[in-house]
Design a protein that fits this description.
Helices cover about 75% and strands about 0% of the residues. By secondary structure, the chain is an all-alpha fold.
């Protein structure tokens, strides 16, 4: 049985992230669960972005007309998202800047989702076979399992180091309880 193809896999991620934003927004400002949801959001977004960098962007550059421009724009957008995630990591839910950071992050993610779902994904679907999309989906799922769970100032240029960074992040998460939703 096949799993989700790359487009379906990444769209599921988008809906999960949108649901996490909704969960943060409905909780009262002093509720500690807001920080836990923000941590869950960070984990989901970092894994998503790393998987895209490893598999979606190369496929778009190679297969889609104008793919280089699309991937450069995505890299810039995702860089802003990661910067906001780094800032958010240092804030508690009751901190004055927390809601502003969540709003800035939501706007960045909304632009990311809009560009992918209305430009990148349709172009990729028309440029790849069903089997290629399925294989890319499998690779994205695998990459998300090994990806870091925290934003890092600069990701390793050697993609072989990404799983090691991910392992260290997951160990830190286990020891701190981060990502184990309350």
């Amino acid at each position: 049985m096949h799993g989700l193809d790359i487009v379906e896999e990444l769209v599921v991620d988008h809906r999960e992230v949108e649901a996490l934003f909704d969960q943060i927004r409905v909780l009262p400002p002093a509720d500690a669960r807001r920080k836990h949801r923000a941590d869950d959001l960070t984990i989901a977004l970092v894994r998503h972005i790393v998987a895209e960098e490893e598999y979606l962007r190369p496929a778009v550059r190679e297969r889609v007309m104008g793919g280089t421009a699309l991937t450069e724009a995505a890299t810039a957008r995702d860089g802003r998202i990661e910067e906001t995630l780094r800032e958010l990591e240092h804030h508690q839910a009751h901190d004055p800047g927390f809601d502003d950071l969540v709003d800035r992050l939501a706007a960045g993610v909304s632009a990311h989702v809009e560009a992918q779902e209305h430009q990148v994904f349709p172009a990729l679907r028309s440029s790849c076979t069903t089997d290629e999309l399925q294989e890319l989906g499998r690779k994205v799922r695998h990459a998300k399992k090994l990806a870091p769970t925290r934003p890092h100032p600069s990701e390793p240029t050697n993609k072989l180091l990404v799983p090691a960074v991910g392992l260290v992040d997951r160990l830190r998460d286990l020891l701190s309880g981060r990502g184990h939703t309350v």
